[in-house]
Amino acid sequence: MNQKTLILIGFIILKFALQCILVSPEYDLQRDEYLHLDQANHLAWGYLSVPPVTSWFSYLILLLGNSVFWVKFFPALFGVLTLLIVWKTIELLKGNLYALILGALCVLFSCLLRLNTLYQPNSFDVLCWTAFYYVLIQYITSENTKWLYIGGVVFAFGFLNKYNIAFLFLGLVPAILLSKQRKILAKKEFYFALVLGLLLILPNLYWQYSNHFPIVHHMKELAETQLVNVDRADFIKEQILFFIGGLLVILAGLYAVLFYQPFKKYQLFFAAFVFTLLIFIYFKAKAYYAIGLYPIYIAFGAVFLSQILNNGWKRFLKPVFILIPLLFFIPMYDIAFPNKSPEYMVAHSEKYKKMGMLRWEDGKDHHLPQDFADMLGWKELARKTDSLYALLPNQKETIVLCDNYGQAGAINYYTKKGIKAVSFNADYLNWFDLSIQYKHLIRVKDFEENDKEMKETSPYFESSVIGGEVTNQYARGYRATIFVFKNAKIDINKRLEQEINEEKSKIIND
Length: 510
Hints:
Strand order of the largest sheet: 2-1-3-5-4
Mean pLDDT: 91
GO molecular function, one term: pentosyltransferase activity
Order of helices and strands: HHHHHHHHHHHHHHHHHHHHEHEEHEEH
Domain Glycosyltransferase RgtA/B/C/D-like: 50-207
Helix content: 55-70%
InterPro entries: LipidA_mod_glycosyltrf_83, RgtA/B/C-like
Strand content: 5-15%
Shape: globular
Radius of gyration: 25 Å
Low-confidence stretches: none
Protein name: Glycosyl transferase family protein
Structural class: mainly alpha
Number of helices: 23
Organism: Flavobacterium anhuiense
């Protein structure tokens, strides 16, 4: 085993180790993770929230026991593979050992550490962006048409994971047209690769068609509730922060693909970067959507710097570039991860506020970063719902109906009573089991929505009571209330079916 391989293995071990220690055990999973895990129980070619690839990993996690270890393992694995592809790209570009170490450090000590703690499509999305760019470099280097087919497969899997990769395509097309690489358009293999990619994503496109393109409704809802609060200046600022330790290396990479003679045939990567970033800015995308754009430029920059820092006084800068990502990681470790108790973070909220970390998607500042608050209170909610469910007669005739997918998913993940909670929110809209004639209702309501629940719902049941609420004051779902309604006077199923149809009509009409 040579020195390079040993160092690479060391980076891989360090990456996995860091992912294990960056989340305090005081935190639960994050709300989106519960939804994605529940998709394993409802496999399909598409969902209202995401394409199907995440559900495939969720099914694998389910087969492995559905433990938190495996939930955290897969995003960490995707992060390791991203690092590995950057390493292989540096080797392809004929980078030396210094370039390999510099590139690996810039990828390791970056925002990917935070991204790879969450079981969401984002980690695999970044991996697919990086892999696609690597495949493109392979093709430009060798002109072997097998890489076109590989590129079609990588893009298809990226698309089936998260539609965000369409931005890569939109930015790359004009860059290719403006470069000498436009000769690729004259190759029949290019079109065969396009057809291959299209065939792979066709089942999902058919699912979208069959379900009246819910992605349109999802994007409209996203634009109205979240993207409307996106500030373009903040978007640009966050781009700098994502890879702050590797920023100089990325800038060096952009310079290199434009002016460094050995990289002349890769000039399209400069235009691709500019076009893609401008498209993100134009559409007021969330800042993290663009993370996948950067790792490949770390590879270019690391190779370029390893060459120009070889002679004269510049060689003394080599250790400086190695130290920069390490030094920037120290403050990042202190503030960017849920590795401290909520009490500590609230007590030191000023430093988080200065970093803009307390600003939520609603455009307001709160007590904790949104993702951190979204990792609290879920076990408590599930435990209390289980306790109330156990007290009811004919438990199988009880439906647990929640306000949002986080509540439903968390209850289903942690339940010891076999509860299958549902919601009119997100994918749960399609997961109601109306073959059971329900008699009892456990209703979980957000605090902001619960003031009218007892008054509006209790007349339809023989008995009604508030069974409990989430008491963790730092949770995003603080004071979410659990109502228990027994012995319905009406046909619950008929009412549920009516509301399901109303919600689906909204999606179709939008």
